[in-house]
């Protein structure tokens, strides 16, 4: 395989993973660890299984059809692609407002500047990436470097918090409680909405498609979930160490509280780096992927897609600077993004069995069954959450 292909495959994996690891991801993981303690390990395990099933199906079908998800949806039923794009773009915009807020919070911790000024500064950095001619490659490297940095710093904090690993392992397989809200929020925050399409659309743009590329695409898609899950597990264990010691996590900023309690002021500064890295890479991923869902609808949108990405970041930044965001909204958006997943995955599974889309390709039966189980399970948990859990947030 070409070295450039390896770089793009790794870049796509990190783009998807760092799109998932945003401020909401950090907040959700800490909040649910505080609520469920070691039993949150079970939620993480179930979400990883669902994430892999969704990701394998979606990336594979995009690669075989050599089309973006919205065009695949329009081939199934005219207008369905526009509906899917609407869901993805509105969800991506809501997420990106939270991402910009997180970037502002990270700079506030690091440098003491106001979150709004930090958000403006971070928005300019994200915009700068898309002003380069080789924006795709720069985006890949940016995601990889900051992704590695986040994982290493969180690993350090995990060790300093001394978590009860044995209890965590036991409760992962024998939980005291099963929380549907937590599962759907985690899945929504990892592969919901635009996130699962981030890497698939990036590989399509780089020309890594077709049957011959399937083994590499499969590895890249599973690697993406592995990277995001590693970060989730390290943060869960770091938070569990604090909870197990009976220390109080600050509800106004749960993840910052964990880093601070685990490693003092140094840990608090590390949180600033992790939060900024998580937020700014998610800003880039959300803007890139959301715009990839509308750029094929007209030659004009395709021609000016980079400026659309920049506009997306500008709007997200200005909305945050105007109104800000509470912790509850980030958990809500994660849950709502989880509701988009069964629709998006259902569309992809239909496409996998349409000859006019995939030709004579035969989608593996086990992947179809796996995907259908996820669609049914996520639909059930999504409706249950909407009726029973989301009203409790407000």
Quickly list its features:
transmembrane helix; 81% helix; cadmium ion transmembrane transporter activity; globular; membrane; NRAMP_fam; 394 residues
Would you write up a description of this structure?
- This protein starts with a helix and ends in a 6-residue tail after the last helix.
- The protein is built from 17 helices and no strands.
- It has a domain at 3-66 and 134-275 and 326-393.
- Helix content is 81%, strand content 0%.
- It has helices at 3-20, 23-36, 40-65, 69-76, 80-111, 115-131, 135-160, 165-173, 180-191, 195-205, 214-244, 254-292, 299-303, 305-323, 327-351, 355-358, 365-388.
- By secondary structure, it is mainly α.
- Keywords: Membrane, Transmembrane, Transmembrane helix.
- The chain crosses the membrane at residues 36-59, 80-103, 109-130, 142-160, 180-200, 221-244, 273-294, 306-323, 329-352, 364-387.
- GO terms for molecular function: cadmium ion transmembrane transporter activity; manganese ion transmembrane transporter activity.
> What structural class do the secondary elements suggest?
mainly alpha
**Number of DSSP helical runs:** 17
Tell me, rounded to a whole number, the average pLDDT.
Answer: 88
The radius of gyration computed from the alpha-carbon positions, rounded to a whole number of angstroms, is 20 Å
Assess the beta-strand content as a share of residues. Answer: under 5%
Shape: globular
List the secondary-structure elements in sequence, H or E: HHHHHHHHHHHHHHHHH
**Major sheet characteristics:** none
Distance between the termini: 52 Å
List segments where confidence is low: pLDDT < 50 over at least 5 consecutive residues: none
> Helical content, roughly?
over 70%
The total of beta strands comes to 0
GO molecular function: cadmium ion transmembrane transporter activity; manganese ion transmembrane transporter activity
Transmembrane segments: 36-59, 80-103, 109-130, 142-160, 180-200, 221-244, 273-294, 306-323, 329-352, 364-387
Keywords: Membrane, Transmembrane, Transmembrane helix
InterPro entries: NRAMP_fam
């Amino acid at each position: 395989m070409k070295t450039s292909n390896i770089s793009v495959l790794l870049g796509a994996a990190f783009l998807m993973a760092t799109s998932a690891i945003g401020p909401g991801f950090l907040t959700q993981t800490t909040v649910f660890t505080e609520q469920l303690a070691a039993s949150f390990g079970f939620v993480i395990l179930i979400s990883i299984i669902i994430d892999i099933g969704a990701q394998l199906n979606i990336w594979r079908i995009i690669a075989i059809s050599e089309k973006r998800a919205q065009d695949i949806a329009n081939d199934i039923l005219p207008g369905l692609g526009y509906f899917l794009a609407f869901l993805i773009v509105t969800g991506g915009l809501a997420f990106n407002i939270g991402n910009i807020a997180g970037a502002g919070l990270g700079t506030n911790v690091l440098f003491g500047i106001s979150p709004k000024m930090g958000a403006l500064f971070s928005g300019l950095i994200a915009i700068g990436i898309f002003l380069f001619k080789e924006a795709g490659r720069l985006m890949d490297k940016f995601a990889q470097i900051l992704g590695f940095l986040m994982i290493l710093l969180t690993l350090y904090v995990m060790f300093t918090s001394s978590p009860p690993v044995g209890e965590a392992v036991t409760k992962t397989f024998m939980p005291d409680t099963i929380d549907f809200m937590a599962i759907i929020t985690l899945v929504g925050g990892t592969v919901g909405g635009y996130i699962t399409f981030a890497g698939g659309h990036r590989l399509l743009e780089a020309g890594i498609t077709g049957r011959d590329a399937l083994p590499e695409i499969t590895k890249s898609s599973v690697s993406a979930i592995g990277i995001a899950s590693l970060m989730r597990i390290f943060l869960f264990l770091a938070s569990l160490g604090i909870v197990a010691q009976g220390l109080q996590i600050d509800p106004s900023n749960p993840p910052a509280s964990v880093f601070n309690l685990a490693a003092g002021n140094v840990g608090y500064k590390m949180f600033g780096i992790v939060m900024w890295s998580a937020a700014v890479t998610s800003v880039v991923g959300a803007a890139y992927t959301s715009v990839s869902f509308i750029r094929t609808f007209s030659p004009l949108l395709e021609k000016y897609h980079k400026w659309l990405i920049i506009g997306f970041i500008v709007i997200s930044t200005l909305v945050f600077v105007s109104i800000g965001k509470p912790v509850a909204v980030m958990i809500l958006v994660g849950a709502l993004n989880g509701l988009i997943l069964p629709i998006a995955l259902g569309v992809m599974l239909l496409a996998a069995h349409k000859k006019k889309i995939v030709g004579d390709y035969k989608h593996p039966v086990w992947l179809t069954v796996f995907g259908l189980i996820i669609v049914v399970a996520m639909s059930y948990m999504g409706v249950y959450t909407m009726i029973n859990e989301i009203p409790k947030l407000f």
